[in-house]
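SEVERITY: medium
COMPONENT: batch folding queue
REPORTER: lab tech (J.R.)

DESCRIPTION
The queue accepted two submissions in a row. Attaching both inputs and their returned structure tokens so the on-call engineer can compare them side by side.

ATTACHMENT 1
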Amino acid sequence: MKNLTTSLVIASLSIVSYSATSAEENMQVRLATTTSTYHSGLLDYLLPEFEKDTGYKVNVIAAGTGKSLKMGQNGDVDLVMTHAPKAEATFVDKGYGVLPRKLMYNDFVIVGPSDDPAKVGQEKSVAQVFKNIANANATFVSRGDDSGTHKKEKGLWAQTEIEPNFGGYRSVGQGMGPTLNMASEMQGYTMTDRGTWLAYHNKLSLTVLFQGDKSLFNPYQVILVNPERYPGINYQGAKVFSDWLVNSRGQQLINDFKLNGKQLFVANANEK
């Protein structure tokens, strides 16, 4: 009888422990995102406010858009925050993601050494900027990591009909912050999202040489991983986070986020 009582007590404690662990896991949300939202400091700014408002804890994996979408495709995260519209559309069309929502935007800029050896600062289009860099065999540091920025860069090279295999082209397989550091050290050119640039530029020997082309528009979305494909994900927690981001609280915080007085992202969830 004593052994039976002991067994029942142990079983009861195990159930309580499992329930507590399960409840704790339900308050954990796994987010895969582009490195720009991390390196710019935006998530460090937003997440404490979200956690304070809702009680959820967000675990961030900053891996670039390509890898983030792959993690969503494998059911390894609960939602993604990315910036590659074509890849995101494929992700949703194939049934990996649901409830895609516009979140915010900024733009890409071309940065390089102040003496601008490829003379890109005087050009009128980003396609001509890329042509100048290739024709001058200037150093261009590419992220080379299948991120949203890398996808955008490859699309721009395709527009020029130039293969980026000239002598000065360097594909480094790194996030935006390390890529900027390398470009600075090598006194080369690179393309960067404006948010990461504003977070890093004081530490770099680079300057913005080209901006404003409509091709450099950089929109971000938040997409939930499909719970029908992966029933074990925390869909409820992910939706709470997505709702918070696109509603007035999250959108105002995104607009309020500034570095050195400069706004890094423009919230646009409510734009048609």
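ATTACHMENT 2
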Amino acid sequence: MSREHLTYWQRNANFMIGGSIVSLLLLLALLAPWIAPFAPDRLILEESMQGPNAIHLLGTDKSGADIFSIILHGTRLSFEIGVTATLVCVFIGLILGSLAGYWGGWLDTIMMRILDIIFAFPGIILAIAIATVMGASKANVIFALIFTGWAGYTRLVRGEVRALKEKEYIQAAEAVGMSTMRIIVFHLWPNLISPILVAATFGVAGCILTESSLSFLGIGVPPGTPSWGALLDQGRDVLLDAPHISTFPGLAIMITILGFNFLGEGLRERLDPKG
């Protein structure tokens, strides 16, 4: 990386702040089993609803579990669900959007009508409906996030491909008889990295927020799984007596979403001049 590029990244406050937050959270997620002072399912009723102290840095919940340990393991869960769902959505959107945008015709028409139907429903409402029908589990949450998330990436890729296929180098590749898949993979996809990376960064934040919302409603991950949303739900009934139970997971969600949003804005400023 040249000195000019390095200076740019250093001056890009959004990227630096967001990258630092996300990197720290990712490190905590990876090291959660080793740095958490207690197991997240360690319950001591005699220590329930304790405020922050020397032993329990962020206090305990209604069951006596250590909130700091739950939040650390919840970070791991949030990253696992958010990144997995986003990667699958990007893969689906990349395939379907490329084919619809490049071939056009009846395939593009059918794809756009399907997208119109999906976009007609608010994403969170659709995710709640799917999670309610399928039941509480991590796999079902990921499925709900994928079902509601792939359409946005498909529309993004379709629009980019429709613009790129009119470029002279694409027409030259077609003129020499290059196959459709080779054109898509080697000439179109490399030019989609920037907009997809920006969209995926915001997408991970959206998935984490939706997972927390589903867990808060009791239809996300199963009971007993360390989740920020579930901890928020547990604390709402004792908000006046033990506000720390809801405050700390709420702060974790807020910081995580801000981190990914700052990172996404920084990437957009650097990689997506049209943004």
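NOTES FROM REPORTER
Residues 90 and 153 are 6 Å apart (CA to CA).
No errors were logged for either attachment.
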